[in-house]
Write a structure and sequence with these properties.
Layout (H helix, E strand, L loop, with lengths): L2 H7 L4 H13 L1
């Protein structure tokens, strides 16, 4: 994962991280 994306994820809540992770794995 690019450092920029990892840094942006720090601003998301755990629920949003889980939702985004599922979206990335599904895609």
């Amino acid at each position: 994962m690019p450092i920029i994306e990892a840094h942006l994820l720090e601003g998301y809540s755990d629920a949003e991280k889980e939702r985004l992770a599922r979206g990335l794995t599904d895609a």
